[in-house]
Amino acid sequence: MADTATSRTPLHARHVALGARLVPFAGYELPVQYASIVAEHQAVRQAAGLFDVSHMGEFLVSGPGAAAFLARAVPGDVLGMDVGKAIYTQFCNAAGGVVDDLLIYRLADHYLLVVNASNIAKDWEHLQSLSPPADATLIDASEKTALLALQGPRAAALLQPLADMDLSALKAFRLAQGQVAGRDAIVARTGYTGEDGFEIVLSGDDAGAVWDALVAAGATPCGLGARDTLRLEAGLPLYGHEWDDATSPVAAGFGWTIKSGAEYLGKAALARQIRDGTPLKLVGLRLLGKAPAREGYEVLRDAHVIGRVASGAPSPTLGHPIATAFVPADVAVGDRLTVRIRTIEAPAEVVKLPFYRRSRS
Amino acid sequence: MKFSKSHEYLADDGTVGISRYAAEQLGDVVYVELPEPGRTFAQGEEFGVVESVKAVSSLYAPVAGTVVASNAELQEHPEYVNQDPYGKGWLLKFEIADPAQVSALLDEATYQSEVATH
Q1: In this predicted model, what pLDDT tens digit does every residue of A204-246 receive, in sequence order?
Q2: Which of A32, A314, A342 lies nearest to residue B30, judging by beta carbons?
Q3: What is the b/e burial string over B53-73, where b = at least 16 CB atoms within 10 angstroms of the residue's CB?
Q4: Where are the alpha helices (DSSP H) in chain A?
């Protein structure tokens, strides 16, 4: 997004000292890369990478009415969450479009919502528009909360000596509260890279010490550039690309995250879409040439434009360009399409999402 | 060697490429698209693109001229642009139409001081 960077995360001085290229994003000045997007990407696929994602928003929802209120806000199964559980879900509007996607973590006495930085104000207004009851308290803790993501096959081995909780007992989409490098933290086995890993929520005041300890333990600092190629390979949607206020989780292939039996905003529209399908759906494209397809490029079938690229990049893991695109629902895996890249029509094959799935050993 | 404000260099023998500063700013170059020999370009006209993981950047002719060769090795090894922008990472050999345009380009010291202030 084109905006003026005004805010800095608590780790800004470290990013500068590491020689990061800093770019404005969602009102923050953030590292897009330190030395090389490809090297950082590979560090996450092969070892462990560390991301400062403190720009993301954190809302706290507490009180006796918290669960019932959140159940009105998301199609994920909030009411089925035990303490220590995390879910990936969305805020939807009445038409089923995605206001934002988010993680909800259930802690002992409140729910923690982690939302996209660019949507903090919009999400807050959206929640207010749902008229929170008197017995639910909402707090925007985004400013004082830091968030680190430690991702990769070596993440657990690297984090365990620094953490006072047993990480082998912490399964995917579970969280624990304790200490990391002597600082209070919430450690969740979640992420946005397609690898095993952890997201660590802590006070901004403690972020520097924990960052330093993780880097000293061998984690490679990684920027937003690698975060984007990693999430794209892993088939994870990004607000503004794979979905937005006019695009539903069903069209983006995330109908499986719609689980709630409660009455939430957008339920009727989403139920209709699950039953009838959507005119456009998200597919994966493998480009057969070397030129990367990029966001907004036209997708063609038999020389007719049938859709557009949602996200596109060279895949460091696969070694060829990949893209997601919205196309008519009759397009199937294995179909040959083309993508208009400047003056050429570049051949592409429709492939299953995700492009990359880690091997589980 | 002379430089354009859009970060292309032009060597005395007509070799065109992008400056080391530009290559570093781009990050990992993954794809380069260059014109065929015989094409002519006006000064400042777009002659190709260089793509990093993150972005597509246009390449502009530092002076008017005709392409006499383009670096086909970059199809297999786009990383040469990062590794050796003034050597193996060259882009085009250019037949310069008007030598007066060359002398109007930035000399190396001026170019380096311009990018240092950014």
Answers
A1: 999 999 999 999 999 999 999 999 999 999 999 999 999 999 9
A2: A314
A3: bbeebebbbbbbbbbebbbee
A4: 12-17, 37-46, 66-71, 120-129, 155-159, 204-216, 224-233, 267-276
